[in-house]
Specification:
Layout: H1 8-28, H2 31-47, H3 52-76, H4 78-83, H5 90-93, H6 98-116, H7 121-139, H8 148-164, H9 174-192, H10 196-201, H11 207-211, H12 213-233, H13 241-263, H14 269-287
Helix pairs in contact: 2-3, 2-8, 3-6, 3-7, 6-7, 7-8, 8-9, 9-12, 9-14, 12-13, 12-14, 13-14
Keywords: Membrane, Transmembrane, Transmembrane helix
Transmembrane segments: 106-136, 148-167, 173-194, 215-234, 240-263, 275-294
Protein name: UbiA family prenyltransferase
Length: 295
């Protein structure tokens, strides 16, 4: 009887297995939103001239929190995604198990809390509340008429966390919180558009599902466009030429997206253009150098 393989020959399949599992976890963390929110918060910290150590802390805290939200979403939605045949989901494809996603989500959640301790009590509370809102959405608020609320609160608190994590005793300006809340609500409305039918088939009845595709397709870019206007006009200092250009372009794209949503409700263009407006909102914040973000 031949001996069982040992040494490198035995370790190679295990290494490939580990790499495949890691890749599946990356796909299951909702990579797009995780990267966007983490990048926005980190860039805002840089724009506020935060020390390098604070910038790294912001990056680590926000990344851990976003990973926990993404993984908990795929863990809690595993049965629902299986029911509608979401083969794009790693847990449905069998690349990762719900138990592994649960473990990863809880570890990331704990890491986000531990990493935020050096940022101070106020910043820790702001970020912990934002992440709690993400988990609350995953745990059931997504199926209620209040599905927009976790997005509004969380996206307002993410920039608030960045300001509060700074070395000064600054607090976030009201206009910054308003931009975050509007960006969150608009992102929620737009993000749901591609999955309305799959969601409805498994009993998810959030606010966009109750409004329907046409109304949601018009309102998503409208809310995001309003966020851009507030980002440009909200700060006390006059906007620069670059900020004005970004604002004008964003409003034009928002109008095009709303028109597409009104006339062609089954088209993917309302979603695509709404995402462009959301990106321009982030650009408006950063081009303005986050002027007046802290008071």
């Amino acid at each position: 009887m031949p001996d069982a393989p040992t040494g490198p020959a035995r370790r190679a399949p295990a290494a490939r297995d580990a790499r495949a599992r890691a890749a599946a976890l990356v796909r299951a963390c909702h990579t797009g939103p995780t990267v966007v929110v983490t990048t926005l918060c980190t860039a805002l910290a840089v724009a506020l001239d935060a020390p390098a150590g604070t910038v790294l802390l912001v990056l680590g805290v926000v990344l851990a929190g976003q990973l926990s939200i993404g993984w908990s979403n795929d863990w809690l939605d595993a049965a629902r995604d299986q029911a509608v045949g979401r083969a794009d989901k790693p847990v449905v494809a069998g690349a990762v198990t719900p138990r592994e996603l649960r473990t990863a989500a809880l570890v990331a959640l704990a890491a986000s809390v531990v990493l935020s301790v050096p940022t101070g009590a106020a910043a820790l509370l702001a970020h912990a509340t934002a992440v709690t809102m993400g988990w609350a959405y995953n745990l059931g608020l997504k199926s209620t008429a209040a599905s927009w609320l976790p997005y509004a609160v969380a996206f307002a608190l993410f920039p608030a966390f960045v300001v509060l994590a700074g070395p000064d005793d600054a607090v976030p300006a009201g206009w910054l919180l308003a931009v975050g809340a509007l960006l969150g609500v608009g992102a929620h409305l737009a993000n749901v558009l591609p999955d309305l039918e799959d969601d409805a088939a498994t009993g998810v009845r959030g606010l966009p599902h109750r409004w329907g595709r046409r109304v949601t397709g018009v309102l998503a870019p409208a809310v995001l466009g309003t966020a851009v206007v507030v980002a440009v006009a909200g700060p006390p200092a006059p906007p620069g030429a670059a900020s004005v250009v970004v604002g004008v372009v964003a409003v034009a794209v928002a109008l095009a997206a709303g028109t597409a949503g009104l006339l062609r409700e089954r088209s993917r263009w309302p979603f695509r253009l709404a995402m462009v407006v959301a990106a321009l909102c982030v650009v408006a914040l950063l081009v303005g150098g986050a002027r007046g973000a802290a008071v």
